[in-house]
Amino acid sequence: MASFEECVSFPLRNCPLFTEKNVILKAKQLETLRALYDNQDCISILPTGYGKSMIFQLLPWFSQCKYAKDKPMTAIVVSPLNSLMEDQVRSLRKNGIRACCLNITGTHGFTFNEGNIDTDPELEGDDEELQPTVVQCDVPFDELKNGEFTLVYSHPQALINTKFSRVLRSQSYQEHVCAIVIDEVHMVSEWGDEFRPAFKRLGEVVCVFDSTFHLLLTATVTPKSVQDLTKQMCLHSPIIVSENVDRPNIFLDVRNRIPNIHKFEKYDDLIEPIASERKTKKHLFPVTIMYVESLEAMGYFFQYTSYALQGDSYDGDDIPENRIFAQYHKDYPDSMKQVILTELTKENPKIRLVLATVALGMGVNAPSVDRIIHCRPPTTLEKYLQEIGRAGRLGQKSTAVMYFNKNDIAKNRKGMSEDMVLYCNHKGCLREMLVNHFGFDRCVFSGPKEDCCSNCKSLVLLHD
Question: Collapsing DSSP states into helix, strand and coil, what is residue 334?
């Protein structure tokens, strides 16, 4: 059997995703791979932006080397959101990786291929120019059964009592599979009981593939949740790999907002300074995701911003693709959602403000985001940490602003946790309270107190 070092270097030399990028794996990525190499179940708790997806993306080649296979094996990646899966599959396909998604009913797969579309016919020149475009294509079921894809992304529902779940139990298919990966595994406890019952049954899939790698990944899980996940996912004494959740480059800011009884005044108080800042700063406006509390609020904010900016609403021609602010929710057209996601991957996107629901969430590759604004608190600190993790992914200084009033953290709000109530009312260091909640006794941040959080900044100003 190949050594651990050989298994690590093999995908970096042979997988087209890594060969041209001079990838150097981080300490916790290597620690996770070491646990899997030693046939240990593993739960990796790593901050947003650390590179969790890279770990499972190299597993097909890692296992090819370990088990001396003649081609990469298959990693099945369980993921909770369409946007998360499709974004990763598009990126992998661009790098020549055979990756696909399994549809939610487990009856067929789909992937994305590059096609070509004609450019503007009025372009000068005799040669007909072509521009690449991405086309969604069905994947024949036989190709899935034969293990012809190295990374198969799936909803949990597609693996339980479906056509594909019967394939999973066949010995011929199991010979192709190297890993069962459950990404964003904190959703097992958050969604399992009501919204996604299949999450609770993922332990069945782990048991079916008893001899493969078992890897659970998340950025936000408490020590108590780790114990629950170990039992629910039928893991055997898993190795826990964790990195401090603190993001020292993100300033934490908690503010009061107008009571709900003054609805439109409350809306104006939230959106007016943002629209004014955008009009003043123009292209220097920090790329911002603003999580709104309802579709009604989103519509109000969108119309307010349109009116406030007038002719400054577009970067170029007045077409939707050039609008400098956007809305993102589950019912928004997929074509426009993809435009937004594509823009956010750019170093300097045209879109500077995205009004979003939680549909714009986990795993979105948005390195240019500098600020997250919550118009009201999420119900848990786990959700909060996930969402502010969209900011500062390249290490740039960023800000997370969260507004709240008494109604927002009332006990009768469905799902509201006591920890979030305490966080909103906390008078000490917000950063310290956040990292303590996730089982760490110290912060990574070591800069000036006024750059830590709004509470620490207030204390500095008070003493000055």
Answer: helix
Rounded-to-integer distance, Cα 291 and Cα 359, Å? 10
- Rounded to 5 degrees, φ, ψ at 332 are -70, 145
Pick the closest to residue 176 from 152, 197, 153 (CA basis).
Answer: 152
Please check whether the domain covering 250-463 is classified as CATH 3.30.2000.30.
no
Question: SS3 of 252, please?
Answer: strand
Across-strand partners of 252?
400, 453
Can you tell me the distance from the alpha carbon of 94 to that of 21, in angstroms, rounded to the nearest whole number?
Answer: 14
User: Using the 8-state DSSP alphabet, how is residue 128 labeled?
Assistant: P
Decide if 100 contacts 148 (C-beta within 8 A). no
**323-379 pLDDT tens trace:** 899 999 888 887 888 888 888 888 889 999 999 988 776 656 788 999 999 999 999
4-242 and 250-463 agree in CATH topology: yes
CA distances from 283 to 279, 336, 343, 394, 398 (A): 9, 22, 14, 19, 16
Q: Which helix (H) or strand (E) holds 216?
A: strand 213-218
Which runs of consecutive H residues, i.e. helices, occur in 364-444? 381-388, 418-425, 430-437
Q: Which of the 8 DSSP states describes residue 250?
A: E
pLDDT digit string, tens, across residues 390-434: 899 888 999 999 999 999 999 999 989 999 999 999 999 999 999
Delimit the domains of the chain by residue range.
4-242, 250-463
- Cβ count near 389 (within 10 Å): 25
What CATH number should be reported for the domain whose range is 4-242?
A: 3.40.50.300
How far from chain centre, in Å, is Cα 150? 21
Nearest Cα residue to 373 out of 252, 210, 192, 212 = 252
